[in-house]
Amino acid sequence: MARTSNPRYLIMLRRRWYAALDVPKDVRTRIGKARFKESLRTESLSTAEVRVRPVIAKWKQIIEAARYGSDDELERIKSLALEWREDLRRAGPQERETLIDVLPHVAATEATGSSVRLIQDIVLGQNTPLMIALPDWISTSTNTSKTKAMQKADINRLAQRFPMTADVTKKSVNAWVDELQETEGLSPSTIRRILSACRMYWKFLARKDFVSSETDPFSEAAPTKANSSKADKKEKRQPFSPAEVVQLRDKAAQKGDTKLADLITIGMWTGMRIEEICSVRHSDISGALLHKSGEGFIL
């Protein structure tokens, strides 16, 4: 039996991990099944989480191909629909009404199945290829070349998961964030950086009227920063015991590192940090006292 606590896309059957992905209803007939399932040939969860990534990516490509045809055909459809959208934008009121009336019939002459609906949605501005404004966004950015390259990579990652703007919803973005964490193993800080770029790009799309400015599917999607308690911080960094300090000093002396040994000696008697010791000037020393920041330390 499959366990209910399995990570996303993974199920355990007979003590082995399997990749699993439900096929969307609109392409089940073409694909010939309701669910993809494949053994990852391992009992290790960590190994399964690595092996599942390319398998899921392959299945998603199959779903896209079944939904829209080959990559070349899909690009042709998108390009054609964007041309018609521009024609519609330039048309006068009466011509616009006529174009909208004949759109379903014209789209049906260029495509079949789900692609007909895709053409209509693009022409009417209800859906847009996600990458449509990426070159413009990057070219208008004032960021450094390195930052631009990272942001471009982040949007490419987004587009691989969501080829069209209509695919991007709060629910789907939250699921994507879970994938980035659980399946790809990205850290919360990396995910926050990716989502920051995605959010800026989405706002750019809104300014260009490619998406609605009233929705922000990336808001509140970023994983929260873990707040370490005082107890946690104390646990992470404990002071050396007096005996350990002496051992450190003796080891430094044995290795011939007299400067380090002297620093440890001064530090263990004064409590000064290494940067404080190294910043001491001759004028700070008076007799047997070392005056630092208004305090006297016995040498």
The CATH topology name of the largest domain reads DNA polymerase, domain 1
Strand fraction: 5-15%
What value does the average pLDDT take?
84
CATH class of the largest domain: Mainly Alpha
Total DSSP E strands = 6
The number of distinct structural domains comes to: 4
Overall geometry: elongated
Q: Give the fraction of residues assigned to helices.
A: 55-70%
**Largest sheet entry:** 3 strands, antiparallel
Radius of gyration: 30 Å
The largest sheet has its strands arranged as: 1-2-3
What is the correct CATH architecture of the largest domain? Orthogonal Bundle
Question: Can you walk through the features of this model?
Answer:
- The protein has four domains: 59 residues, no CATH class; 53 residues, no CATH class; 78 residues, DNA polymerase, domain 1 (Orthogonal Bundle); 57 residues, no CATH class.
- The chain has 13 helices and six strands.
- Helix 3 runs antiparallel to helix 4, helix 4 runs antiparallel to helix 5 and helix 11 packs antiparallel against helix 12.
- It is elongated, with a radius of gyration of 30 Å.
- The chain has 299 residues and is mainly alpha-helical.
- The chain has a three-stranded antiparallel sheet, covered by helices on one side. Strands 4-5-6 form a three-stranded antiparallel sheet, with no helix packed on it.
- Strand 4 and strand 5 form a beta hairpin.
- The chain starts with 9 loop residues before the first strand and ends with a strand.
